[in-house]
Structure formats: C-alpha cells, structure tokens
Amino acid sequence: MNPVYIAGAGMTRFGRSEWSLMQLASVASLAALHHANLGDIPVDGVVVANMGAARMNRQTALGSALVDQLALYPAAAESVENGPASGASAFKVGVQAIASGMADVVLITGVERMRVVNGLEGTDFVSSLSHPEAEYIYGVTLPALAGMFARLFMDKFGVERKHLAMVAIKNHANAAKNPYAHIQQTVTMEGILTLPEAAVNNPPIAEPLHMFDCCPVSDGGASLVLVSETVAAKIGGPKVRVAGIGQATDTHTVHEREDPTDLKSVRIAAGIAFDRAGLTPQDVDVAELHDAFTILEIAESEASGFFPRGEGHKALERGETQLDGTLPINPSGGLKAKGHPVGATGVAQLVELTWQLRGECDARQVKDAKVAYACNFGGFGNNVVASVLQREA
Amino acid sequence: MGNISELEVRMRPSAMDMPVYPPKAITLASGETMVVRQVARDEVPILLEVLYPLLWVERDFYDIVAARLFGELLAYKRYRAKDEYVLVGLIDGVLAGMVNGRLVDEKTGMSYHTLTIRRGLRVGSHLFAAKMEYHIEHCRQDDVLIVAESPIGFRRWMIEYPLEKRFEVQHELGGVPSWVLPKDVYYAAKPRLVSGHRPVSDELMKSAATIVLPEEEIVVRQVAGEKEEQQ
Predict the structure, then answer these.
(1) Which of A125, A311, B65, B205 is most buried, by the most CB atoms less than 10 A from its CB?
(2) What is the least distance, in Å, from the CA of B138 to any CA of chain A?
(3) What CATH superfamily is the domain B21-226?
C-alpha cells in the first residue's frame, strides 16, 4: 500500500449553530484545504461522513452536494453513514483511495446538524442505531445502554462515581483550552459530586450516569485533507502519516455479548491498527477516545491496550491521562466537552491529533507528541474504527 | 401636585405583607458560589439594561421572556403590579439570572419569569427552585401557578417537578392554561431540586451587594449562542 499523509485539518466550532448543514461542511472543508496549502493541486475525491441528515435536515447525497458547494468538480464524491463511527469510516475510505493509488488528494469531511430537532427527537434518532427488534422497540436509548454498561463495569472493577467525575473534570478543563469546543466551562468534584448542591447541579440521566457523565448534543463540521507521498513532498510542511487503521465489529445487541463489559471490537480494531503501524500502545503520546459517556473513556483506555483490564480508573487516579500525564487522553475535551456532532466526531478526533502532532494546539498542546491514537466507537461498540497517526521528521 | 400624589396613591395596588426572601448561597458545578437574594425597586434599572439586548434574541424564546420581564420589572419599580417580587442570582456580584412572580392571594402564588444569563450550570433551575421555595416555605402558600414559554421551561418545570394541570385557570402570561405546583409536590421534589445554604457569610453578602452586569460578550455567548462568524 502507498503511504498516506494528512496534509490539512480544520473544523468549525462545535455547539449549537445557526449555520446550515452545508455551511458547516463547507467552512470545515475550506479550513482544512487552507491548512493543507495545496495551491493548484486538484482534489480527486470527497468523502462526507454523516449519520442523520436524511432524517434531521432532509438532505442526502452530501458528498455530491459538498463538491458542488466548493466547486471541486469533477472530483469523485461519496457519502458514508456508519452510525457514530461514520467519521473514521469516511477517513478509512479516503485512506484506501490514496493507498491503492486511485487518488492523490482526498477531502474527508464529517458533519452533523442535530440541534435543529428537539432533545427527544435527537435522542430517538441516535437510538435508531440499536437493534430494532431486540432493543429499540423496548425504548432503549444510548444513555440507557451506557448506564447499564456503567453499572456492570463499575461493579466488576471497583470503579466509583468519583472516577467518572474525574473524567468529566479533566475533559472539561481541556475543552476550556480549546476554542473549538462546545462547552468551555470547568467543573469541580464538589460541584458535581460531593456537595449537597451536586444533586441539583448534576442530576441523574441513566443511573449511575449523571448529566456531567454525558456528552452534549452538538452541531459541527470537521475536515481532513489526505494526500499521497508525491503530493506531500510537493506541498512541504509537517508530515503526519496515517500509520495504521483497524476496524472491528461485534454483536448488534449488547446483551448477546459473552461479557458486555469487554469492548472486544475496540480491542480487535486497536490491535489491527497497531499491527499495521508497527507500533504498540506504549508508543502512543496522545489519544482521543470516544467518551460519549465518561465510563467509555475508562473502558476504551483499557481495551485499546493502554492499561490492563480493570486498571483504567487507577491510571486516571494517578493522573496519567491528564494533559501533562504520561498518556494524555482527550486533550480536545473529548466528546464529553468538545461536543459530539455524531457524523463529524470521528473526523474531529483526527483533526485534533493532526494538530497535536504538528504542535499547533497552543494551551492544550501535548509536549513532543509523535504518535497519536484515535478510537471512534460506533453503535454501542458494535462497529469500531481505530487509527494510529505518526509524525515524520 | 397634591392632586397628582393623591391620584398616584389611588392608582397603586394595595400591598400584602410579604416576607423578605432570606438570601442563600449555592455552589454550582463549576465550583463558583451563586448568591440568591431579593432585589429592591431601585435596583431595577440595571436589570433592564441586561434585558434590552435580549429583546431581539429569538433563540429559546429569550425575546418574549425578556420583553415581558422588562414590563414586569417596570411595573414592579413603578408600583403597577400587585405584590410582585424579584430574585437574582449573582456570582461574584455578576448577574447570572433572575426570576420574578407575585402573590395572587394569601394562598396562591403566580410565577412569572425565569431568565438565565449564565447558561450551562443549571442557574435557571436553581433560581426557579428558589422562587418556589419563596412561595411555599416563606410566604406559606399552598399553590403556585406556572406556565412555560419555551420548551426548556416546559422540561424544567412541568416534567422535572412534575407539575399538575389546572387548565381551568388562565395564567396572567397570555391567558394560557395554568399548571400548578401544589405544596405537597414541592416538598416531594425539594430534595432533588432545591439546594443552597444559609446564612450567607458577610463576605459573600458584601460581594452580592451591588449587581454587576455581565460583559456583553458573555451575554451573547451564553444566551444568544456564539456567532460562528467569530471563528
């Protein structure tokens, strides 16, 4: 396979936007194209990741629409819908196009405009990824699945609510340093857990998960420009190489899994990604994990191979995942505080890591980051894409 | 002039004896402390200032809430509303939100508005709860009549408490059917929705003595939503 490089990365601020879906996609794309500094080198292909535009925005065929919006004709155009893993799936499609020699420059854009519908409809929309006959018809929502998962995981490994709060506090603090984050508000252990007021400040959503354990519903767009080795050499600048991608699936229904607390798809996807990269989890300097719920950051940090099973919360307690720790996790603020526009999330994780590897993250910059890892968690762990990026000198 | 004063006296509604809301302090999720206290009539002008730019903010019905609240505050200041009160939430003296209402009679209260400036920390939820606390615990009323003008309000009041229907009563806000918070529902909800501690320290009360308006940027970001053009 030919090497693939990320030449540019850009995104909109996540949050509640007045912009249309295509405005969000266009602004993110233009930011990434500007960052890539392609000059007159044409874009061969465009891949747009999105989960809910057909339902929430009454728009389909987003790849074609973005090509038209940016006048990138006759670039090839695709749209990818793969639930919350749509972003990294689109990234994989772009990487395959360049690695196979079919393209030299591919624009990957993830976009979602969810705040156009009310909270109930938004929750119902995301729940539609669950099994229609075994989960959805019984009223299962993603917070409910995460709540049940958290209960099992906490019982099994001695994780306490204080550990979940520690994830929230860390990620809110990181997001406060990220101008693109949805929530730029720090929170404290007293305010969300230990004082009596915390009962009001941080009400239960799906026990044991409370409000500050859940990501916000966001609008936003994120984009990457992927290039071949030839183009990377031509445009110069810092070189971020796609070292490896892995993808794995698991049963659609969570209750069919032998051990529902074992994120097998994360474990397998990460293993493939690290094998392809010729690297190990111990080589990683910075990671973006899919913390739609705080418990998932802890569980994914173990399943990705950073910490032994049942030890993620202990590493968190030791401060290892802090911005100045040995393995900073979610320096962007993660889904928890940066926000979670579903189709854009997987791309936004890689945008953050590209900026980290290029040393462009200002106050939240991880020192000397050379290897980065992202876990884009689709469904409730039934479709996971793991990516490893590496900075070349 | 004497005739005008006499006329003014006749125009002012009679006033019930209303207890003063005892200030309380609430620690927010951010760790900051919000002081909730009652405001005097001479503090109304500064509250009007913060409402003015919100009159044209359609998001989350801030326009209608700000416009109606503007009128209600003027009516309070100039004695054109009967038995009205206003509470504010202040963080380091900076206005985080405000609520108001009035007493219909000895046993029935009427909630008017809840407006949050500092969003994302459940300031509105805390202030609304303080308002209910005032009616039920301090004014010793049995019922508070409530309506919501935004979906956020509906979720916070009608669903979270949960309120009961009293649709045969028209609420003063637009004559729409009223919901009601009866005393027993209030006390059932109190452990999960009403918080804060008293007495408030002298130091905190000093910090909350003068209302400071938030910077306009904060008002725009927190209330109207940040303009994407600023990126």
Answers:
(1) B65
(2) 20
(3) Gcn5-related N-acetyltransferase (GNAT) (3.40.630.30)
